[in-house]
Design brief:
By secondary structure, the chain is mainly alpha-helical. The chain is built from 9 helices and 2 strands, in the order ααββααααααα. It starts with a helix and ends with a helix. Keywords: Signal.
Length: about 200
C-alpha cells in the first residue's frame, strides 16, 4: 500500500511540476499555416461551373486553380495573337497550330495537367489532383516533349509568371495578399527546371 502511495505521489509531483513550468512567458508554438490549396477553398465540394459540367461537383481548391489556369491560357493566347512573331508564340506553336485548325483537345489536356500539377503541389491530396505528367525539365524540353515549341528563357518565364499573377488577380486573389505572394514563391521555385536557355 505504501509503495502505491509513493508512486501516486511521484506522478502527482511530476505532473504538477510540468503544469507549473508552463507560464505565459513561454513561447507558444507557431500556428501551422494552411496550404495554398486549402486557402483556395480546399476539399470543400462546390458546383462545377465549367462548360459542360453543370450538375457536377468539384473541390473548391481545384476549381480555383482551373479558373486561374484557364485565365492564364487566355492571356497567353491573346499575347500570341497580338505578337505573332514574338514572346511566347514559339513555345506554344504546336498547340496553337492545332487550335487554329479547330482542334482544342490538347488545350483541354494542358489545362487539366496544369490544374493537376498546381493542385497536387500546393496541398491537394485527393486522388483527383494526382499529377502524372512529365517532370518539369522534360516537359519544357522540345527534344523530349513535342508539345513544346522551343526552350524557355528567363524573360519568357518572367512573362509567364506575370500572366499567372494577372489571372490570379482576375479570379479574386489580390497582389497584396499573402496567398498571392505564396503562389509566386511556388512559381519561382519552378524557374530553374523550366528555364533551359
Amino acid at each position: 500500500m505504501r509503495n502505491f502511495s509513493k508512486i501516486t505521489l511521484s506522478v502527482l509531483l511530476v505532473a504538477s511540476a510540468a503544469f507549473t513550468s508552463c507560464s505565459d512567458d513561454d513561447p507558444k508554438p507557431e500556428p501551422v499555416e494552411e496550404s495554398i490549396y486549402t486557402r483556395l477553398g480546399g476539399t470543400k465540394m462546390v458546383p462545377d461551373d465549367g462548360e459542360g459540367n453543370e450538375g457536377q461537383m468539384i473541390e473548391a481548391g481545384r476549381l480555383a486553380f482551373r479558373k486561374v489556369v484557364n485565365s492564364t491560357v487566355g492571356l497567353i493566347v491573346a499575347d500570341v495573337e497580338a505578337n505573332a512573331s514574338g514572346n511566347l508564340s514559339a513555345h506554344f506553336a504546336p498547340l496553337l497550330t492545332e487550335v487554329g485548325a479547330g482542334n482544342t483537345t490538347k488545350v483541354a489536356v494542358l489545362v487539366d495537367n496544369l490544374t493537376d500539377f498546381f493542385s497536387f503541389n500546393t496541398g491537394g491530396t485527393n486522388p483527383v489532383n494526382t499529377y502524372s505528367g512529365l517532370n518539369m525539365v522534360d516537359a519544357h524540353d522540345p527534344a523530349k516533349n513535342p508539345r513544346m515549341g522551343t526552350k524557355s528563357s528567363d524573360a519568357d518565364y518572367t512573362k509567364f509568371v506575370g500572366y499567372v499573377g494577372a489571372a490570379a488577380n482576375t479570379n479574386g486573389v489580390p497582389s497584396s495578399s499573402q496567398l498571392y505572394k505564396d503562389i509566386v514563391v511556388v512559381l519561382q521555385s519552378l524557374r530553374a527546371p523550366i528555364v533551359q536557355k
